[in-house]
Amino acid sequence: KHRIFRGARQVVVNRQDALSRPLIGEGLPCWTFGLNKPDFHGFGLREENGEKFLAFQFENLMPVSELKVRGAHNQANALAALALG
Length: 85
Description:
Layout: E1 11-14, E2 30-33, E3 42-48, E4 51-56, E5 59-63, H1 72-84
Parallel strand pairs: 1-2, 2-3
Antiparallel strand pairs: 3-4, 4-5
GO molecular function, one term: acid-amino acid ligase activity
Pfam family, one: Mur_ligase_M
Protein name: UDP-N-acetylmuramoylalanine--D-glutamate ligase
């Protein structure tokens, strides 16, 4: 898995999968995603008033209910796509 990060100018990693997290050089931008609350420079799920949202850091981006596809793996895919820009 780590070969794909060679020569990268920025990386996106699943923060819930320690094995996929590369050893990255200092100063290389790193964005994370996961099905838990987002961290700094991270995308994740936040819950507000009983509703789940795709979120970046502390900002809700859109309700999960608006995704056209269902399931946690599709939520993770959407978060990864957001992290890729």
